[in-house]
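Example 4.3 (complexes with small molecules)
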Amino acid sequence: MIKTKKQGLLIVLSGPSGSGKNTICDELKKENTNIWESISMTSRKPRKGEVDGVSYYFVSAEEFEKNIKEDKMLEYAKFAGNYYGTPRGSVQEHLDKGEDVILVIEIQGALQIKKKLPQALFVFLLPPSMKELKRRLVDRNTESEEKVMERFETAYREINELSKYNYVIVNDEVKEAAAKLGAIIKAERCRVDRIEEVFLDTSEEKIHEILVDKDLENKRVDINKL
Ligand code: 5GP
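Answer. The structure with guanosine-5'-monophosphate bound is encoded below.
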């Protein structure tokens, strides 16, 4: 008896590099196949095993800047010396189709979206400890020692922005953290401000008229006849 908003829900999953955002998002999508994950654009070089158009759209810094100038990015940031950003068009298309969309992005970009679309859902992922975060960044073995230190320092600064988010999840166990994210999304879909219309069928409308719209004073209503 309710019709929810036709537009899908925009979910922003963010947190320091090494907090496990991609792992949690992949786990979430196993159980929630109706969530579409946006593919970001970056000027970073592909790592071993990364595929263009799947992991990221890999472009040059010049091409990225051209996209910024042409207003094609929903948000973007410079992180560890490279550009990262969300192409606007595909996100809009999926939301307009009523699909929920998840963005897995760092904090500067998430805060840009918060300014533009405060009604989106903002979830911050934390590692169990900063020691564990550093271990994950080192063990990943994808960046130089200097770059790992840069990401680690940035993580300390990013944690200060936690209060700007709606929810926080500590990622100490992948399945548990992904289940919490799934539960938050389910709850968000039930928010009253996502309801467009409450509708009644014809007979219910008649009852509504008798019980609510008409002045019932001095009138007795036999509940069994409704
Ligand atoms: P990585 O180089 O490890 O793939 O990504 C570095 C950081 O950039 C991560 O925190 C990642 O979540 C973030 N990131 C990935 N895509 C985007 C994006 O489209 N926008 C923003 N702002 N950050 C992104």
